[in-house]
Specification:
149 residues; mainly alpha; 2 domains; 74% helix
Length: 149
């Protein structure tokens, strides 16, 4: 099949030739490209989220919830690929620990990072909220510093 033949799968779904080539390079077929595009993703970003086994509708709320929390201004401005990986990695940790985007944000905000998601899940299972869990965690760390130091 010629390049034009491949691209017709995209152009038939409303992509320009340039957009079609970008989605093709990111390894998306026309139907999947349209789903990711309609969810607001660029090809390279969609590729990162897709590699982590997110579909567009699942990835979108995670990206919106976690991007501001896991990516500082410098990364947002200068390293898009890094920001996508950071947000996607964080989302995968929280999702795998049983959190929704809305549930993960308060925990992340008080200092539980993505690698703490399973710990946060254990706190949550005992009925503790993010603030109480963080306070308890902080006091235990302070106690261990006193006894070890």
């Amino acid at each position: 099949m010629t390049t034009d033949g491949y691209l017709s799968e995209y152009t038939a779904r409303g992509f320009s030739r340039e957009e079609a080539e970008a989605w093709f390079r990111a390894w998306f077929k026309g139907p999947a490209a349209r789903l990711w595009c309609d969810a607001g993703f660029e090809p390279e970003e969609a590729h990162v989220w897709g590699e982590a086994l997110f579909d567009p509708q699942e990835a979108k709320p995670w990206r919106e919830a976690l991007m501001p929390l896991v990516v500082d201004k410098a990364v947002r401005e200068h390293a898009e690929w890094g920001q996508w990986r950071a947000a996607c990695g964080a989302a995968a940790h929280w999702r795998d620990a049983g959190f929704s985007p809305e549930e993960a944000v308060p925990w992340q905000t008080v200092g539980f990072g993505p690698h703490d998601a399973k710990i946060a899940a254990r706190f949550r299972a005992t009925g503790l909220g993010p603030e109480d869990a963080q306070a308890g965690r902080s006091s235990r760390m302070a106690d261990s510093d006193v006894t070890e130091g």
